[in-house]
Amino acid sequence: MTVTQQTDHTVQGILIPAAEPVPPEEPVRRRGVLGAVIRSPKGAAGVGMLLLVVAGAVIAAWVAPHTATATDGPPLTGPTASYWLGTDNLGRDMLVRIAVGIRVSLLVSIGATLLAAVLGGLSGLLAGFVRGRFDSVVMRWWDVVLAFPSIILAIAVAAVLGAGVWTAVIAIAVVGMPSFARLARSSTLSERTLDYVAADLAAGASRVGVLVRSVLPNVAGPLVVYFTISVPHAIVLEASLSYLGLGQQPPTPSLGGMISAGQQYMAQAPHFIVFPSIALFLIIVSILLIGQRLSDALDPSRRYRMARRSGRTR
Fold first, then answer.
1. Looking at the whole model, is its pTM more than 0.85?
2. What span, in angstroms and rounded, lies between the C-alpha atoms of 266 and 260?
Protein backbone atom coordinates (compact mmCIF):
# COMPACT_ATOMS: atom_id res chain seq x y z
CA MET A 1 0.00 0.00 0.00
CA THR A 2 1.39 3.39 -0.97
CA VAL A 3 1.16 6.35 1.39
CA THR A 4 1.22 9.88 0.00
CA GLN A 5 3.45 12.12 2.16
CA GLN A 6 2.25 15.69 2.66
CA THR A 7 4.68 18.46 3.63
CA ASP A 8 4.35 22.00 4.86
CA HIS A 9 4.56 24.78 2.28
CA THR A 10 4.84 28.54 2.23
CA VAL A 11 2.40 30.96 0.58
CA GLN A 12 3.44 34.64 0.49
CA GLY A 13 5.78 34.12 3.41
CA ILE A 14 3.14 32.38 5.55
CA LEU A 15 3.84 28.82 6.62
CA ILE A 16 0.84 26.61 5.86
CA PRO A 17 0.92 23.27 7.71
CA ALA A 18 0.08 20.17 5.80
CA ALA A 19 -3.54 19.10 6.08
CA GLU A 20 -4.11 15.94 8.03
CA PRO A 21 -5.69 13.17 5.99
CA VAL A 22 -9.36 12.68 6.76
CA PRO A 23 -10.24 9.05 7.49
CA PRO A 24 -12.94 7.58 5.33
CA GLU A 25 -16.41 7.72 6.80
CA GLU A 26 -17.48 4.45 8.34
CA PRO A 27 -20.57 2.96 6.79
CA VAL A 28 -23.64 2.88 8.96
CA ARG A 29 -24.33 -0.67 10.01
CA ARG A 30 -27.77 -2.01 9.31
CA ARG A 31 -29.19 -3.73 12.31
CA GLY A 32 -32.16 -6.02 12.46
CA VAL A 33 -35.49 -4.75 13.67
CA LEU A 34 -35.41 -6.91 16.79
CA GLY A 35 -31.90 -5.73 17.58
CA ALA A 36 -32.97 -2.11 17.14
CA VAL A 37 -35.86 -2.63 19.53
CA ILE A 38 -33.73 -4.29 22.20
CA ARG A 39 -30.90 -1.75 21.96
CA SER A 40 -33.29 1.11 22.67
CA PRO A 41 -33.85 1.86 26.40
CA LYS A 42 -37.62 2.02 25.89
CA GLY A 43 -37.67 -1.10 23.75
CA ALA A 44 -35.46 -3.03 26.16
CA ALA A 45 -37.64 -1.94 29.07
CA GLY A 46 -40.79 -3.03 27.24
CA VAL A 47 -39.37 -6.42 26.22
CA GLY A 48 -37.96 -7.05 29.69
CA MET A 49 -41.20 -6.05 31.40
CA LEU A 50 -43.31 -8.22 29.11
CA LEU A 51 -41.00 -11.23 29.51
CA LEU A 52 -41.05 -10.77 33.27
CA VAL A 53 -44.84 -10.68 33.40
CA VAL A 54 -45.31 -13.63 31.04
CA ALA A 55 -42.61 -15.73 32.72
CA GLY A 56 -44.06 -14.92 36.14
CA ALA A 57 -47.52 -15.97 34.97
CA VAL A 58 -46.26 -19.27 33.56
CA ILE A 59 -44.06 -20.11 36.54
CA ALA A 60 -46.68 -19.08 39.11
CA ALA A 61 -49.34 -21.29 37.58
CA TRP A 62 -46.87 -24.18 37.43
CA VAL A 63 -45.28 -24.09 40.89
CA ALA A 64 -48.14 -22.74 43.00
CA PRO A 65 -49.61 -25.32 45.41
CA HIS A 66 -53.16 -24.14 44.70
CA THR A 67 -55.33 -24.09 41.60
CA ALA A 68 -57.19 -21.12 40.18
CA THR A 69 -60.60 -22.45 41.23
CA ALA A 70 -59.77 -24.06 44.60
CA THR A 71 -61.65 -22.40 47.48
CA ASP A 72 -59.63 -23.92 50.31
CA GLY A 73 -58.12 -20.69 51.67
CA PRO A 74 -59.41 -18.05 54.10
CA PRO A 75 -61.42 -15.40 52.24
CA LEU A 76 -59.99 -11.91 51.68
CA THR A 77 -56.63 -12.65 53.30
CA GLY A 78 -53.67 -10.42 52.47
CA PRO A 79 -50.32 -11.71 51.21
CA THR A 80 -48.96 -14.54 53.36
CA ALA A 81 -46.37 -17.29 53.07
CA SER A 82 -49.01 -19.67 51.71
CA TYR A 83 -50.77 -17.11 49.50
CA TRP A 84 -48.18 -14.68 48.15
CA LEU A 85 -50.74 -12.26 46.73
CA GLY A 86 -53.54 -13.10 49.16
CA THR A 87 -56.94 -14.62 48.48
CA ASP A 88 -60.19 -13.36 46.99
CA ASN A 89 -63.68 -13.31 48.47
CA LEU A 90 -64.05 -17.09 47.97
CA GLY A 91 -60.62 -18.01 49.36
CA ARG A 92 -58.98 -18.62 45.97
CA ASP A 93 -55.28 -17.98 45.42
CA MET A 94 -54.88 -14.54 43.81
CA LEU A 95 -51.41 -15.34 42.44
CA VAL A 96 -52.63 -18.29 40.40
CA ARG A 97 -55.77 -16.49 39.28
CA ILE A 98 -53.77 -13.47 38.09
CA ALA A 99 -51.36 -15.78 36.26
CA VAL A 100 -54.24 -17.48 34.45
CA GLY A 101 -55.89 -14.11 33.83
CA ILE A 102 -52.72 -12.79 32.17
CA ARG A 103 -52.63 -15.74 29.82
CA VAL A 104 -56.31 -15.35 28.97
CA SER A 105 -55.91 -11.62 28.37
CA LEU A 106 -52.89 -12.05 26.09
CA LEU A 107 -54.36 -14.95 24.11
CA VAL A 108 -57.70 -13.23 23.56
CA SER A 109 -56.24 -9.84 22.67
CA ILE A 110 -53.49 -11.16 20.38
CA GLY A 111 -55.86 -13.61 18.69
CA ALA A 112 -58.51 -10.93 18.15
CA THR A 113 -55.97 -8.42 16.82
CA LEU A 114 -54.51 -11.05 14.48
CA LEU A 115 -57.98 -11.83 13.15
CA ALA A 116 -58.67 -8.12 12.66
CA ALA A 117 -55.33 -7.64 10.88
CA VAL A 118 -55.90 -10.56 8.49
CA LEU A 119 -59.51 -9.84 7.56
CA GLY A 120 -59.37 -6.06 7.73
CA GLY A 121 -55.98 -5.84 6.06
CA LEU A 122 -57.03 -8.20 3.28
CA SER A 123 -60.17 -6.20 2.55
CA GLY A 124 -58.22 -2.94 2.48
CA LEU A 125 -55.52 -4.47 0.29
CA LEU A 126 -58.07 -5.66 -2.27
CA ALA A 127 -60.01 -2.39 -2.11
CA GLY A 128 -56.91 -0.31 -2.78
CA PHE A 129 -55.70 -2.52 -5.62
CA VAL A 130 -59.00 -3.27 -7.39
CA ARG A 131 -60.60 0.17 -6.85
CA GLY A 132 -63.95 0.93 -8.49
CA ARG A 133 -67.26 -0.15 -7.00
CA PHE A 134 -65.63 -2.82 -4.84
CA ASP A 135 -63.49 -0.18 -3.17
CA SER A 136 -66.49 2.08 -2.53
CA VAL A 137 -68.67 -0.67 -1.05
CA VAL A 138 -65.98 -2.12 1.21
CA MET A 139 -64.68 1.17 2.56
CA ARG A 140 -68.15 2.66 3.10
CA TRP A 141 -68.99 -0.40 5.17
CA TRP A 142 -65.89 0.03 7.30
CA ASP A 143 -66.69 3.73 7.66
CA VAL A 144 -70.07 2.78 9.11
CA VAL A 145 -68.45 0.36 11.57
CA LEU A 146 -65.81 2.93 12.49
CA ALA A 147 -68.49 5.50 13.28
CA PHE A 148 -69.45 3.61 16.47
CA PRO A 149 -67.34 4.04 19.63
CA SER A 150 -65.19 0.95 20.08
CA ILE A 151 -66.47 -0.06 23.51
CA ILE A 152 -70.12 0.44 22.49
CA LEU A 153 -69.62 -1.65 19.35
CA ALA A 154 -67.83 -4.39 21.30
CA ILE A 155 -70.63 -4.50 23.88
CA ALA A 156 -73.25 -4.64 21.12
CA VAL A 157 -71.52 -7.54 19.36
CA ALA A 158 -71.04 -9.40 22.65
CA ALA A 159 -74.67 -8.82 23.61
CA VAL A 160 -75.86 -10.27 20.29
CA LEU A 161 -73.57 -13.31 20.34
CA GLY A 162 -73.77 -13.98 24.08
CA ALA A 163 -71.09 -13.85 26.78
CA GLY A 164 -67.96 -15.96 26.37
CA VAL A 165 -64.30 -15.90 25.45
CA TRP A 166 -64.90 -16.51 21.74
CA THR A 167 -67.48 -13.74 21.76
CA ALA A 168 -64.83 -11.40 23.14
CA VAL A 169 -62.44 -12.43 20.35
CA ILE A 170 -65.02 -11.73 17.65
CA ALA A 171 -66.15 -8.45 19.23
CA ILE A 172 -62.61 -7.11 19.56
CA ALA A 173 -61.75 -8.23 16.02
CA VAL A 174 -64.80 -6.44 14.58
CA VAL A 175 -63.77 -3.26 16.38
CA GLY A 176 -60.22 -3.44 14.98
CA MET A 177 -60.95 -4.39 11.37
CA PRO A 178 -61.81 -0.91 10.00
CA SER A 179 -58.50 0.62 11.10
CA PHE A 180 -56.48 -2.19 9.53
CA ALA A 181 -58.54 -1.91 6.34
CA ARG A 182 -57.99 1.85 6.04
CA LEU A 183 -54.26 1.50 6.69
CA ALA A 184 -53.86 -1.34 4.18
CA ARG A 185 -55.88 0.57 1.55
CA SER A 186 -53.87 3.78 1.90
CA SER A 187 -50.58 1.89 1.71
CA THR A 188 -51.78 -0.08 -1.32
CA LEU A 189 -52.88 3.10 -3.11
CA SER A 190 -49.38 4.49 -2.66
CA GLU A 191 -47.71 1.31 -3.91
CA ARG A 192 -49.91 0.68 -6.96
CA THR A 193 -48.89 4.02 -8.53
CA LEU A 194 -45.18 3.14 -8.48
CA ASP A 195 -43.32 2.07 -11.60
CA TYR A 196 -42.53 -1.46 -10.49
CA VAL A 197 -46.24 -2.38 -10.40
CA ALA A 198 -46.77 -1.10 -13.94
CA ALA A 199 -43.60 -2.88 -15.05
CA ASP A 200 -44.73 -6.20 -13.59
CA LEU A 201 -48.13 -5.92 -15.22
CA ALA A 202 -46.55 -4.96 -18.56
CA ALA A 203 -44.25 -7.97 -18.30
CA GLY A 204 -47.28 -10.24 -18.21
CA ALA A 205 -47.56 -10.91 -14.48
CA SER A 206 -51.06 -11.56 -13.19
CA ARG A 207 -52.75 -9.03 -10.94
CA VAL A 208 -52.93 -11.58 -8.14
CA GLY A 209 -49.25 -12.34 -8.49
CA VAL A 210 -48.30 -8.65 -8.43
CA LEU A 211 -50.53 -8.11 -5.41
CA VAL A 212 -49.08 -11.02 -3.45
CA ARG A 213 -45.41 -10.89 -4.47
CA SER A 214 -44.83 -7.17 -4.90
CA VAL A 215 -47.45 -5.04 -3.14
CA LEU A 216 -48.16 -7.14 -0.05
CA PRO A 217 -44.54 -7.24 1.26
CA ASN A 218 -44.35 -3.44 1.10
CA VAL A 219 -47.71 -3.01 2.81
CA ALA A 220 -46.95 -5.52 5.56
CA GLY A 221 -44.53 -3.23 7.45
CA PRO A 222 -47.10 -0.60 8.52
CA LEU A 223 -49.58 -3.37 9.35
CA VAL A 224 -47.06 -5.08 11.65
CA VAL A 225 -46.40 -1.82 13.48
CA TYR A 226 -50.09 -1.09 13.84
CA PHE A 227 -50.68 -4.65 15.03
CA THR A 228 -48.28 -4.08 17.92
CA ILE A 229 -49.93 -0.77 18.75
CA SER A 230 -53.43 -2.31 18.58
CA VAL A 231 -52.78 -5.15 21.04
CA PRO A 232 -52.88 -2.88 24.15
CA HIS A 233 -56.20 -1.46 22.97
CA ALA A 234 -57.49 -5.02 22.54
CA ILE A 235 -56.32 -5.87 26.07
CA VAL A 236 -58.29 -2.91 27.44
CA LEU A 237 -61.38 -4.00 25.48
CA GLU A 238 -61.04 -7.58 26.72
CA ALA A 239 -60.72 -6.38 30.31
CA SER A 240 -63.72 -4.11 29.83
CA LEU A 241 -65.88 -6.91 28.45
CA SER A 242 -64.82 -9.22 31.29
CA TYR A 243 -65.49 -6.41 33.76
CA LEU A 244 -69.05 -6.16 32.41
CA GLY A 245 -69.50 -9.94 32.46
CA LEU A 246 -69.44 -10.31 28.67
CA GLY A 247 -65.99 -11.87 28.30
CA GLN A 248 -64.38 -14.84 30.02
CA GLN A 249 -66.92 -16.46 32.32
CA PRO A 250 -66.31 -17.76 35.86
CA PRO A 251 -64.84 -19.86 37.28
CA THR A 252 -62.02 -19.25 34.78
CA PRO A 253 -60.36 -16.03 35.96
CA SER A 254 -59.79 -12.88 33.94
CA LEU A 255 -58.14 -9.63 34.95
CA GLY A 256 -61.23 -7.58 34.17
CA GLY A 257 -63.46 -9.98 36.07
CA MET A 258 -61.19 -9.87 39.13
CA ILE A 259 -61.16 -6.07 39.07
CA SER A 260 -64.95 -6.06 38.84
CA ALA A 261 -65.31 -8.47 41.75
CA GLY A 262 -62.72 -6.69 43.87
CA GLN A 263 -64.13 -3.18 43.66
CA GLN A 264 -66.67 -3.86 46.42
CA TYR A 265 -63.87 -5.00 48.77
CA MET A 266 -61.49 -2.08 48.21
CA ALA A 267 -61.62 -0.92 51.83
CA GLN A 268 -61.54 -4.40 53.36
CA ALA A 269 -59.06 -6.10 51.01
CA PRO A 270 -57.35 -3.64 48.64
CA HIS A 271 -55.06 -6.36 47.30
CA PHE A 272 -58.09 -7.91 45.62
CA ILE A 273 -58.22 -5.09 43.07
CA VAL A 274 -54.69 -3.66 43.25
CA PHE A 275 -52.74 -6.72 42.08
CA PRO A 276 -54.87 -7.48 38.97
CA SER A 277 -54.77 -3.78 38.08
CA ILE A 278 -50.96 -3.74 38.33
CA ALA A 279 -50.70 -6.83 36.12
CA LEU A 280 -52.98 -5.23 33.52
CA PHE A 281 -50.99 -1.98 33.67
CA LEU A 282 -47.65 -3.73 33.17
CA ILE A 283 -48.88 -5.67 30.15
CA ILE A 284 -50.28 -2.58 28.44
CA VAL A 285 -47.25 -0.38 29.11
CA SER A 286 -44.74 -3.04 28.02
CA ILE A 287 -46.47 -3.68 24.68
CA LEU A 288 -46.87 0.06 24.06
CA LEU A 289 -43.13 0.58 24.59
CA ILE A 290 -42.33 -2.26 22.19
CA GLY A 291 -44.77 -0.92 19.61
CA GLN A 292 -43.35 2.59 19.81
CA ARG A 293 -39.79 1.39 19.34
CA LEU A 294 -40.85 -0.98 16.55
CA SER A 295 -42.45 1.95 14.75
CA ASP A 296 -39.20 3.90 15.00
CA ALA A 297 -37.15 0.94 13.77
CA LEU A 298 -39.31 0.39 10.67
CA ASP A 299 -39.51 4.07 9.70
CA PRO A 300 -36.46 5.05 7.61
CA SER A 301 -36.80 8.78 8.34
CA ARG A 302 -36.95 8.16 12.09
CA ARG A 303 -33.98 5.80 11.89
CA TYR A 304 -31.95 8.49 10.16
CA ARG A 305 -32.91 11.17 12.69
CA MET A 306 -32.03 8.85 15.58
CA ALA A 307 -28.72 8.01 13.93
CA ARG A 308 -27.97 11.73 13.53
CA ARG A 309 -28.70 12.39 17.19
CA SER A 310 -26.46 9.52 18.27
CA GLY A 311 -23.60 10.69 16.00
CA ARG A 312 -23.53 7.62 13.73
CA THR A 313 -24.06 9.72 10.58
CA ARG A 314 -22.70 13.02 9.35
1. no
2. 11
pLDDT tens profile 200-254 = 878 877 888 888 888 888 888 889 889 999 999 999 999 999 999 999 998 899 9
Main-chain phi, psi angles of 15, to 5 degrees: -80, 120
Q: Which tens digits make up the pLDDT trace of 247-287? A: 999 889 999 999 999 999 999 999 999 999 999 999 999 99
Round to whole Å and give the CA distance between 6 and 277.
Answer: 70
Judged by DSSP in three states, 188 sits in helix
**Residue of 188, 190, 215, 187 whose CA lies nearest to 201:** 215
Which helix (H) or strand (E) segment is 173 a member of? helix 165-192
Buried b or exposed e, range 150-169, using 16+ CB within 10 angstroms: beebbbebbeeeebebebbb
Nearest alpha-carbon partner for 150 in 104, 112, 106, 101: 112
Cis, bond preceding 17 (omega within 30 deg of 0): no
Closest residue by Cα to residue 111 from 176, 183, 52, 48:
176
